[in-house]
């Protein structure tokens, strides 16, 4: 039994050493995939220092579709068994009015539309719903203007676009009907739009 154990241990060590060697060789060879950075659907070539595909705002897992009456009733019924969550949200107070933070008299070259998260997308097309969206105040920014935000002369190569910026994490209570349970989820969402210049290859 001891000999079998030592033989298996030796095989494991050989396997680990082989994997490490493959990784080192891959890194040393300069994998071409590492030379390309993605931003949304855009692809940036680090060697050429230009964009192969124009950068876009990454797809968000949050949406602002109004919750149906059926979903709101499901959440209310489920909360009867989770009074701790209901009490926590009742005590949570947020000022969700974004107009209070606007700058009067200053023109934004990238106008922003704030949305309130009502749904969180999951794999397989499944959705979970934010419990009391108006109380949890999970906002994200949508850029109203997409392209040509810069005042500099635009050429066939030099472009500009309004892209989502200042991503922050939100912790939010959601309800998943397929599992019929509440979850405390963390979601990453943009809070601003910035005018960015970029060069196409």
Can you describe this structure?
By secondary structure, the protein is an alpha+beta fold. It has a domain at 59-147 and 163-194. It has four helices and ten strands, in the order αββββααβββαβββ. Strands 4-6-7-9-10 form a five-stranded antiparallel beta sheet. Strand 2 and strand 3 (50-53) form a beta hairpin. The radius of gyration is 24 Å and the shape is elongated. 14% of the residues are buried.
Low-confidence stretches: 11-34
Tell me, what's the shape? elongated
The computed structural class is: alpha+beta
End-to-end separation in angstroms reads 63 Å
Q: What's the oligomerization state?
A: single chain
The ordered H/E elements are HEEEEHHEEEHEEE
Strand elements, count: 10
Strand content bin: 25-35%
Q: How does the major sheet shape up?
A: 5 strands, antiparallel
Mean pLDDT level: 75
What is the CA-atom radius of gyration, in angstroms?
A: 24 Å
Q: Order of strands in the sheet with the most strands? A: 4-6-7-9-10
Helix proportion: 25-40%
Instruction: Note the total helix count.
Output: 4
């Amino acid at each position: 039994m001891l000999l079998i154990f030592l033989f298996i241990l030796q095989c494991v060590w050989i396997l680990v050493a082989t994997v490490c060697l493959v990784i080192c060789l891959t890194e040393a060879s300069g994998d071409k995939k590492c030379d390309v950075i993605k931003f949304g659907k855009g692809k940036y070539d680090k060697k050429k220092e230009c964009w192969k595909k124009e950068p876009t705002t990454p797809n968000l897992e949050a949406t602002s579709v109004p919750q149906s009456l059926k979903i709101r009733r499901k959440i209310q019924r489920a909360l009867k068994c989770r009074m701790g969550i209901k009490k926590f949200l009742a005590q949570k107070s947020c000022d969700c009015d974004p107009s209070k933070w606007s700058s009067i008299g200053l023109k934004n070259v990238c106008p922003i539309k704030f949305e309130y998260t009502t749904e969180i997308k999951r794999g397989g097309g499944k959705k979970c719903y934010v419990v009391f969206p108006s109380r949890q105040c999970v906002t994200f920014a949508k850029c109203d203007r997409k392209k040509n935000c810069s005042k500099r002369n635009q050429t066939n190569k030099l472009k500009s676009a309004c892209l989502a910026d200042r991503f922050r994490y939100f912790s939010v209570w959601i309800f998943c009907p397929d599992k019929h349970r509440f979850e405390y989820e963390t979601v990453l969402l943009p809070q601003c739009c910035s005018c960015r210049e970029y060069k196409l290859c």
